[in-house]
Amino acid sequence: MPKKPRTPSTTQFSDQILIATKPRKLHLLLVRRIIVLFFSYFKDLVGREVTVELKNDLAIRGTLHSVDQYLNIKLENTRVVDQDKYPHMLSVRNCFIRGSVVRYVQLPPDGVDIELLHDATRREARGG
Amino acid sequence: MPYLGPEDIYLSTSLASYLDRKLLVLLRDSRKLMGTLRSFDQFANAVLEGACERVIVGDLYCDIPLGLYVIRGENVVLIGELDLEREELPPHMTRVSVAEIRRAQKAEREATDLKGTMRKRMEFLDLD
């Protein structure tokens, strides 16, 4: 029995719903492109001071050294935000953080060009 | 934002700079392992030689030797490079034997369980 053809969402919906109702294959490609968008965005931030908050509530401040396609992060000159709670981290100065455990990456306020990011995201969502 | 070619997407933050160094590995179950990194792969799976687990309970700590360990990458939270010139732990912490740290762990676990049941009882009574 032939599968019912799925229709792409129309342009009258917002970008959010556009992403949610796209056919699955296209959606995965879009997610891939958004990840690449963030990867290139983080590559621009290399050398800036960021605070990475992990899913286990550990927050680490440091200089962004490198990032990869999995959004794994390497920080240099690290110091833990609440040092007394994490005594084992005292002598750690450089670290590698697995992308899957990151909850937030707190950025310097002047590190974000909001308009540029908005345009890039809109372009990706539209498929341009 | 710089345009990424197809080959740029496959760059990876390498753990190669950490090879043969003494590292602290934080795991998702909040265990802290220390050892020398001998091998790794793209999933952050790691081989640690001379691994030991550093158990910290309050101001007490103990290093339990484990030997050669292969760690599955999905359990890794953070891999930190230990700075040999700095103290690994705050000076007020005391090193104790394995038996004593196990007792301290048990006591801490029982205290949190008791706190949990007390809280549940209070919530049941719905006291303000």
UniProtKB/TrEMBL annotation, chain A:
Tell me the compartments it is located in.
Nucleus
Q: Does the keyword Ribonucleoprotein apply?
A: yes
Q: What is its main location?
A: nucleus
Q: Which domain of life is it from?
A: Eukaryota
Arranged from A to Z, the UniProt key words for this protein are: mRNA processing, mRNA splicing, Nucleus, Ribonucleoprotein, RNA-binding, Spliceosome
**Pfam families for this protein:** LSM
Asked whether the keyword Nucleus is assigned, the reply is yes
| Chain coiled-coil ranges | none
Residues covered by the Sm domain = 37-111
InterPro entries linked to this entry: LSM_dom_sf (IPR010920), Sm (IPR047575), Sm_dom_euk/arc (IPR001163), U6_snRNA_Lsm2 (IPR016654)
Family under the similarity heading: Belongs to the snRNP Sm proteins family.
Q: What is this protein called?
A: Sm domain-containing protein
The species is Hibiscus sabdariffa (roselle)
Automatic annotation (TrEMBL), chain B:
Under SMART domains, the record lists: Sm (SM00651)
Q: What is this protein called?
A: U6 snRNA-associated Sm-like protein LSm1
Q: Per its UniProt record, what PANTHER family does this chain match?
A: LSM1, SM-LIKE PROTEIN LSM1B
Q: Which gene encodes it?
A: LSM1
Q: Which residues form the signal peptide?
A: none
Subunit record text: Component of the heptameric LSM1-LSM7 complex that forms a seven-membered ring structure with a donut shape.
Q: Which domain of life is it from?
A: Eukaryota
Predominant cellular place of this UniProt entry's protein: cytoplasm
PROSITE patterns of this UniProt entry?
A: SM (PS52002)
Is Cytoplasm set as a keyword in this record? yes
What SUPFAM superfamilies is this protein classified in? Sm-like ribonucleoproteins
Report keywords, A-Z. Answer: Cytoplasm, mRNA processing, Ribonucleoprotein, RNA-binding
Q: Is GTP-binding among this UniProt entry's keywords? A: no
| Record lineage | Eukaryota, Viridiplantae, Streptophyta, Embryophyta, Tracheophyta
Q: Where in the cell is it found?
A: Cytoplasm; Cytoplasm, P-body
Role played: Component of the cytoplasmic LSM1-LSM7 complex which is involved in mRNA degradation.
Q: Which CDD domains match?
A: LSm1
Q: Domain Sm, which positions? A: 10-85
Q: Which InterPro entries match?
A: Lsm1, LSM_dom_sf, PTHR15588, Sm, Sm_dom_euk/arc
Family stated for the protein in its record: Belongs to the snRNP Sm proteins family.
Pfam families, A to Z: LSM
